[in-house]
Amino acid sequence: MATLNSLRIPALFLFTLLLGTDAYFYSRQSECHFSSNDLHDLEYIDRLLFNKLEFMRYNSTLNKFIGYTELGVKNAEIWNTDGTVERWHKDLDGYCRHNDGIYSTAILDKKNIPKPTIKIRSASHSSHKHTSMLVCSAYDFYPRGIKLTWLRDGKEVTHDVTSTEELANGNWLYQIHSHLEYTPKSGETISCRVEHASLPKGKEVKWDPNISEVKRNKVIIGASGLVLGLIITIAGVVYYKKKSTGRILVPSS
Ligand SMILES: *[C@@H]1O[C@H](CO)[C@@H](O)[C@H](O)[C@H]1NC(C)=O
Question: Is the CATH code 3.30.470.20 the one for domain 15-109?
Answer without folding.
Answer: no
